[in-house]
Amino acid sequence: MTFKTIIEPFKIHSVAPIRMTTPQERERLIEQAGYNLFSLRSDDVLIDLLTDSGTGAMSRNQWAAIQHGDESYAGSPSWEIFRNAVQNLFPFKHVIPTHQGRAAEKILFTAIGGSGKVIANNTHFDTTRANIEYTGAEAVDLVIPEGLEPASRHPFKGNMDLIALEKFINTRGVENIPAVMITITNNSGGGQPVSLENIRAVSAICKKYGLPFFLDACRFAENAWFIREREVGQGDRDVVDIIREIASLADGMTMSAKKDPLGNIGGWLAMNDDELAVNCRNLLILTEGFPTYGGLAGRDLEALAVGLTEIVSHDYLKYRIESTAYLGNALAKAGISVVQPIGGHAVYIDARALLPHIPPLQYPGQALAVALYKVGGIRGCEIGTVMFGRKPDGSEEPSAMDLVRLAIPRRTYTQSHIDYVIEVCIEVAKNAAQLRGYRIAVEPAALRHFTSVFAPL
Known about the structure:
Elements: H1 23-32, E1 47-48, H2 60-68, H3 77-89, E2 94-98, H4 101-112, E3 118-121, H5 126-134, E4 138-141, H6 162-172, E5 180-183, H7 196-209, E6 213-216, H8 220-230, H9 239-248, E7 252-256, E8 267-271, H10 274-287, H11 298-310, H12 314-333, E9 346-350, H13 351-354, H14 364-376, E10 378-379, E11 381-383, H15 385-388, E12 403-407, H16 415-430, E13 438-442, H17 448-451, E14 453-456
Parallel strand pairs: 1-10, 3-4, 5-6, 6-7
Antiparallel strand pairs: 2-8, 7-8, 9-12, 11-12, 13-14
Helix pairs in contact: 1-14, 2-11, 3-11, 4-5, 4-10, 6-7, 8-9, 12-16, 14-16
């Protein structure tokens, strides 16, 4: 028998209070924050869906592991526990711990990037692109056409365009391409998964041309679950087996362990290339810490090791994907355009479709994100022209899509919280025609969405 109610496969062990604010308070607070959701105090947010990165709840076994952490500077047993847990899923020869994913990106692209270099991905996320461009290299997105169509129901909209990849390699030259990457799941494109067939094909193309193939694998378990559920011939496989096959097809990976590994902090860089590993470890020592802790406490390493065993639970992944779809399907049923099919870690509202009267260069995603906070205290994140519109040469152009991401922290909110989010979104949508765009009053040189100050038009 199948029941309609989605129950959490865990019990609540401890709770944190939510401060209830009024619409009048929120009007004042968001103005003081320069209409930038990143600048709000978390205490002034009712439901925080800004990101799923490092915002989840750790389990009792993870908290117990923290007590077991050994804080020796070099050669801590906590490092060995962490490394073994990583290599159990991703059996790369070299594992280099970092304090979070962007540190792994910084080290990798410092080692392989530079002026004249170009790196392809299905879609680079913000810090990935910024770290590539900081070295003088170029970041190129090669997602399939369906990945840029919010309403398309292609089951693997995160797939890389294979024809475009080969054309890219032949046009730009193998000597100028230090690596090819795939982000799983594809965050910028709506949390959409990449099929195992596509990963195999990209791996084969990279081997054909002798190019290193790296994974940005932050949401690897969710991607593996989508493969199991959607891809022909994969339905009887264990998620762990799928993850190991994905890893076997790549030459290395970056990881923000604040996502699927269920940590509040942490990450790693892994690879098989001995020479590259030496260069990366030297950079790690310079910027992060010794190679057996990499900017993390021993207790963090142990918590992540436990998280890597918990994330591959089929019961957990089924709940995670279905509960996210619960939100997305409810919004779609209410007539609110969302990226289809629903992704794993977030629901992406199509702000350009909801606010067609606001031009992309007046940031419809920012307008919608601010409105969700004003009306209901919900903090989402613009994934659109604010985040990706500014080019390295200083010019600005509309991004491929203008979305608002409602990222759901892992094991944090209950169904009643999500029901409240649905009500707020519907209320905002009713008055969408009254919303107006924004301009950027103060803009930093890079990653402007984090610290820009906005002004309403």
